[in-house]
Amino acid sequence: MSLGELARCAADASDLTALLTQHQPGGPESEPAVREAHHRALEALRRAEESARAPFSIGLVGEMSAGKSMLLGLLLGLPELLPVGEEAVTGNVTLIHAKAASAETGESHESAVRVEYFSQAQTLDYLRHLRNELANQAQSALSAQVLEQLRQLPIREPDCGELLRFRDTYLTGALAQSLAGVLQELDSLDQALRRMHESGLPLLGQRAELDDELARAAVVLPGADTERGADPRGHFRSGAPARSGLGASLSTGLLRATLPLIRRVVREVRVAPSVWDLGEFPGAELRLLDFPGLDSAFSAVRDQYVCGAELHSVHSLLMLLNAGGGAKDTPQRIFRMWRAAQRADSMEDSIIALISRFHDLRVAEPVLKSYAADTQPLTREQLLRGIPVLKDLLASAERLVTPAHPTPTSMGPADRVLLTSAMRALSVSGRHEQVGREFRDKCDLDVKLPKADKHAETWGEIGRRLSTDALSGGLDRMLTDFADDGGLARLRRRLRDHVTRHGAALRLDQFAERREDVVEALRELQTALEASGGRSRVDHRSDTAVSQRLTVLSAVWMDVRDRSAVELLDAHRLSSRRTRGAPGPSLFTELERDTAERVYTWPSWNRLLDTVHEERVDARRLRGDHRVPVRTDEFFPEFRDACREIEAAGSARLLAAVETWLLGHQQRVVAAARELATVVTPDAYELLRSSTEGERLAARLPRAASLQWLRDEAEKALRDTDPAEPQVDDEQVRQRFPLRTGHILPWHPDNLVGSAADASSGHQTTIARHRREMTAMVLHQALAGLARRQRLVAAHLWSQADAFIDDLRAPALTGALVTAVAGGKESERGLAGLAEQLSLRAENSAYSWKPADWDAAANPWEPGGPFGGQPFDQGPYDGGTTP
Ligand SMILES: Nc1nc2c(ncn2[C@@H]2O[C@H](COP(=O)(O)OP(=O)(O)OP(=O)(O)O)[C@@H](O)[C@H]2O)c(=O)[nH]1
Ligand SMILES: [Mg+2]
Fold first, then answer.
1. What is the pLDDT of residues 196-208, one digit of tens each?
2. 259-290: per-residue pLDDT in tens?
């Protein structure tokens, strides 16, 4: 399966959505079961389409303060993009839509930030999660009866009242202490809901544009803001976006107070190609998600809930192991959470493990120095024996990324473990020079950067000393890459390789579940429709027959439309008549001939020639008292009139050429229309016309079968826009006039040598040359006028044909034709017809629920197949025991 498959799934989802939207169950007659199933199906289709169209997404996860937020900002070239800080800072998920900025853009920048609140349904779900969490944690302390009461506690409104009353009655004293984590979350949620009600703003299900300060309030954990964490305000952006709508009513206080109701913050970022060329990813786009640290004492229950929900849509994980903290079990826990959220088999394939803040690795300075200084060859084995904390970290990182059953395309574990340091990256990129004072202080850059640089250099030395043989597992390169730039270039390359290699498969894996949901939902809708007696009197089987033919017809029209934009502009190719199927001379040739004929008949030429012949004028005898033969100016009126006439004639020639061109396409148009007529019979056509709306739709069909109306359009365009007198003013013509005025013809200094006879033939040659020049100029003028008209006609025909194609493809026409062909009226196409249409449409779509689609017959292991259904152990491949 490929990305093309995903595109098809998205398109099919969109088609089916259109079908369902067209047939809304409204009105009192529709049953609640149908309405619900309809709603669920639409929802499943929406999610499936979203998933199929979604760009590749990568989540950054790990324990708190592993450096996720900072690393993410640096990857995109915006170190201050996200709030960072020494203790748990991130309290909400941030989704970053990262797109490639244009090549001219020197810097990465952010273009918008918004907050998205939980919907009502999500809030209820979160409340149920808290209830179930309480029940699980209090299991051993409550009597079976009370526990059951808790489990059954109804949650129908976004309101904590019931749960709080239960807490006050049963969850007190020491039990309350042991449940403190969940109870605290319940309290925060209660306060958030109260605060929302007080504000009078219906926040649930809403999204709002924010500025930097508000965006910060929406992600930073309470308490982390003032004491900890750097304020990134405005250092990287030229002015915060203006807020409007709901965003304008939000305040920092309200966002902080309602943080438990926030689903996520979304940021749109344009990444400069000089930082990271996102053009290498499908769609030149990536989604990156910054998660809260998953071992924070502040908000563990909520974090896990929110992250669990978001992990669902993530294709791959960057799992950060904090080198400064040593190996922990948080990553394994996260992995389990992820596995629970996804269903794919080889999840390890889609994890990249980063040993982050690597320069903070706890190794005594002298030990490190001794390895760097030693001149003996060094093996991985020796290094890890001397630095066990690195050995442990590498081992736990490799475990994370090693699939139990590696596939041939899996990257080796060594390819998916990286050493990184945001500090080193910041230092090498030089961006620390641009960050704000506050950020610098809070991240303690003045102390951390030099330390990072020093350690990086030492590690770089060690990397260069390490042996490069297979046993080193690439550790030498990992270390030197880390030393070079904090490992970011290596990370970006790995991500690109990863997406190239696994992108399509991972996205399809994830999509598979959404597809199943759709199939299930459509099947339920089908059942509900049939159970409600929803059978229409119209047989919608004609649907396919009609739409297929309409598609062919509009394809032919599209071809005419597209060719008109090119071919009608080519005067060398257009011709105004056809003789016995072959095109006559081109418009260009015709015009050339017209012009030559016209110019050659000017009386002035004869006068000139007569002068040369009869009077045998010899220029040498020309004196001031001699009669001046012909002046150049005398040719001007003839030249001007010829320009006007030839240009005016161009209009008629062009129209004739357009007509011929259209006739060349007529046959295909008629053939496609005839094909449609095999299903839209005269009876069906009459039925279609029997209503006002139908009449209007029916009017399109005769047009679709003939190009005559386009010819009339071309004529109209020429008539309406061409002025009666061609716009050739004297001044313009004068500029084109090829002879210098005020001279006499045909005396040319070259002809003054030789005899009188020589002079005469020389004069004739000059006359011929003048005539050619004159012809060329008139032709030039005529072609310029013709080109203007060609553009006009081509543009007009293109837009007329385009609008007409839209009409042909409009679902209204298809729908009306289907109904008419099936012998019904438009009014019968309500919900009743949906059951049939649904089953027909789904049959050919990516969401078919018919088992036939799986092609069971082609399964070679089925009885009767080429392998005759033999069990493996009886076949020729029985484990090598066959001689
Ligand atoms: N020494 C060092 N400090 C780092 C590095 N990366 C981040 N930090 C610091 O570590 C602290 C935590 O960084 P964050 O990016 O907020 O970490 P996080 O994983 O997002 O933390 P939470 O969101 O709170 O879980 C900040 O003070 C950073 O300045 C690094 O590579 N080296
Ligand atoms: Mg963070």
1. 999 999 999 999 9
2. 999 999 999 999 999 999 998 888 889 999 99
Ligand 1 site-directed mutation target among 60, 61, 69, 299, most atoms within 8 Å of CB: 69
Contacts 24+ apart (CB under 8 A), 583-588: 583/660, 587/653, 587/654, 587/657, 587/786, 588/783
> What are the φ/ψ torsions at residue 321 (nearest 5 degrees)?
-110, 120
Name the residue among 136, 126, 128 with its Cα closest to residue 154. 128
Which tens digits make up the pLDDT trace of 48-85? Answer: 999 888 899 999 998 888 999 999 999 999 999 998 88
- pLDDT, tens digit, 9 for 90 and up, residues 479-499: 999 999 999 999 999 999 888
What was the pLDDT predicted at 877?
30
Nearest to residue 79, comparing CAs of 448, 526, 382? 448
Mapped onto helix, strand or coil, the DSSP state of residue 141 is coil
- The angle subtended at Cα 841 by Cα 837 and Cα 847, nearest 5°, is 130
The separation between CA 12 and the C-alpha centre of its own chain, rounded to angstroms, equals: 17
CA 328-333-338 angle, 5° bins: 140
Among residues 259, 304, 302, the alpha carbon closest in space to that of 115 is found at 259
Tokens for 34, please give them. 């149908």
278-305: string of b/e by CB count within 10 Å (b at 16+)? bebbeebbbbbbbbbbbbbebbbbbbbb
Contact 780, 665 (CB under 8 A): no
Surrounding ion ligand 2 within 5 Å at CB are 68-69, 90
- Compute the radius of gyration of the chain from its Cα atoms: 40
Q: For residue 166, what are its two tokens?
A: 């239960």
pLDDT in tens, 412-457: 556 789 999 999 999 999 888 888 888 898 889 999 999 999 999 9
Question: What's the DSSP call for residue 282?
Answer: G
**Residue 262, SS3?**
strand
Which of 42, 84, 39, 37 has the alpha carbon at shortest distance from 60? 84
Q: Are the C-beta atoms of 785 and 647 separated by less than 8 Å?
A: yes
b/e for 597-636, b at 16 or more Cβ within 10 A? ebbeebeebeebeebbeeeebbbeeeeeeeeebbebeebb
Identify the residue whose tokens are 């995903």. Answer: 6
- What is the domain partition of the chain in residue ranges? 543-619+626-826
* Residue 859's pLDDT band (cuts 50, 70, 90): very low
User: What single letter denotes the amino acid at residue 314?
Assistant: V
Decide: 342 and 312 in contact? Cβ < 8 Å: yes
DSSP 458-486: HHHHHHHHB--SGGGTTHHHHHHHHHHHT
Atom 9 (ligand 1) nearest CA:
67
Mark 338-359 as b/e (b = at least 16 C-beta within 10 Å). Answer: beebbebebbbbbbbbbbbbbb
Q: Nearest residue CA, atom 7 of ligand 1?
A: 67
Distance 708 CA to ligand 2 centre (A): 67
Cα 15 versus chain centre, distance? 18
Atom of ligand 1 nearest to the CA of 424: 31
> Residue 696 is inside which H or E element, if any?
helix 692-698
Task: Decide if 823 contacts 687 (C-beta within 8 A).
Answer: yes
CA of 71 to the centre of ligand 2 (A): 9
Q: Which residues line ligand 1 (CB under 6 A)?
A: 64-70, 84-86, 88-90, 292-293, 357, 360, 421-423, 443, 448
First to last CA, the chain: 38
